[in-house]
Amino acid sequence: MSNPVLVCALRRINAIKVLADTLERLPLCMEKLGKSNSVLQRVMALTPEMTFRQAVLFFTEKDFVTGKPYFYCLTCISLNKCIYFSYLVGETWRCHVESLFTYLQTGAQVLCTVLLIKPGAWTRGLARILRKLDLEKFIVVGMKHTNLEPDIALGLLSPEMKQDPAVLEAHCTYLTSGSALVLCLQRPNAVKKLLDLLGPEDPKIAQALDPFLWRAQYGINAVQNGFYGSRSYQIAVQDMKLFFPEGLCCADCQTLEEEEV
């Protein structure tokens, strides 16, 4: 390649899908910004193994270190607008600087997340829910029966829900209407795996996507949708500290020690 290039390692949660979606929209964005004679090209490595081999070409152990990796994509951008992408995949939350190459060879880490079974849902389906968790290789390391206070219920809602006062009131009223069961669950890639099992927050949308999604099976409507799951690992750590301040049972997990859970 005759022109100089800029090589970047990009980081964010679910980076592979997000970057792929962004690239799909990129030609349309360029048309809106103005036409150019340059041709945009991209080549994507779709496996971590291929990415690892390609990353070695650009970085050394000394160059490529990071403190808290989630999902990675290695990006090489040339000044003539020819783009080359390859992906580095990983999920962890580390307090110490660690070589990303070493982490990729280690594999997925065991993490924890929080599942709250909302009022009404756990009393009629707890045995089946626990069976489903076992089949999905989750280990229960914390369990608590609780009545949510209004301020705690408010903290569980997404920013989108808080924008509409009527929706906000409906959710808070329901969450505080009866007892809930809070579980702390452990397995590799726990946060994303649980969210994938729960499905969209609206049971009707979940039903249309896959009738076996948990909210499709146990949810009644967008408010009484059966479950709350931590939306990210950062939120999962906050949830664990909120619901289990006394600690967890038999949770042998380095990330929990580093987060002082």
From TrEMBL:
Residues of the Nucleoside diphosphate kinase-like domain: 110-250
Domain of life: Eukaryota
Matching InterPro entries: NDK-like_dom, NDK-like_dom_sf, TXND_domain-containing
Coiled coil: none
GO MF assignments: kinase activity
Entry-linked SUPFAM superfamilies: Nucleoside diphosphate kinase, NDK (SSF54919)
UniProt KW keywords: Kinase, Transferase
Pfam family, one: NDK
Gene3D superfamilies in UniProt: Nucleoside diphosphate kinase-like domain
Similarity-based family: Belongs to the NDK family.
Protein name: NDK5 kinase
The organism of origin for this protein: Crypturellus soui
